[in-house]
Amino acid sequence: MRLQQLEAIIRRIDAFHPDYLYFKEQLAMANVGVSGEDEVQFFLQELATPHRVIRNFSFFNAQQQRHEIDFIVIFPSLIVCLEVKNIAGTLHFDAESSQLLRTRADGVTERFANPIEQLNRHLRALSSFFPYIPLHGAVVIANRRAIIASKPPDSPIFHADYVLSFIEKKLIQHCKPILDLDKVYAQLLSLHSPKKEAFTFTLEQLKCGVFCEKCAAKMRFAHGKFLCPHCRFQNKYAHFQALHDFRLLVDTKITNQQFCVLCDLPSRYAAKRLLRLLPIVKRGKYTYYEIPELIRPQGR
Known about the structure:
The protein is an alpha+beta fold. The chain folds into 2 domains: 2-191, no CATH class; 203-290, no CATH class. It has 8 helices and 15 strands. The strands form 4 sheets. It has a 5-stranded mixed beta sheet, with helices on both faces. A hairpin with a 4-residue loop joins strand 4 (90-94) and strand 5 (99-103). Helix 1 packs antiparallel against helix 2 (20-44).
């Protein structure tokens, strides 16, 4: 959700917006995080033992404090939690000071929060829901160029290519099946509470128009489809991306008039034809169109 919102923001606000650089930086950081998780996902796909994987698991503990775990891997004999860090440089994990120090290639040293404590916090919270299931966790460094220079001897910290070996050792240690995979998977999903960012805008704050998915130029609507004047790409469903952006940043429903402004359409009749596939909701004298969560550009 956060990544999609940030992508929509960068598409829809002007470069001179006072927070444009902030949002651009946040988007870059979010992409780095997703890239690191993709690296770990690649290795998890090689697991042969029956299992279930939940990525980006978010839940509240008994004290209503939020926890966000990058990966939860459920096996018949245990649960494994993985905290992924996509950080380059030389890494020093300092247990006594509870910090991660990263020395960059230019010699600058930076401090990060201790991911070991972060992981332990997650494990403690999960154990309150599953007190009789063995729980194990690890901090996974997804950046292949990172060097793990020092770490506490009793803390599992390693590169992504060691994930399978770590899991295999834990499966040998806990080889007796004690849980129902589907049941525990369903229990965890019932606890899942995705975090919703407070990125909200008004229609007036956004750039209007339908933008080409190939070159990002503003498209023109003619003869029932959108045409890019720059690269000549055509798509009669290109307005779906604009609706998706509106849903992420403004509201889950939209009026014909708002849609005309959003997509820079001169005719409300053309707008009505484009919106005909969306569910209609009547509220007093106003007619709204519900925007589906999974709406995306499709077809040509």
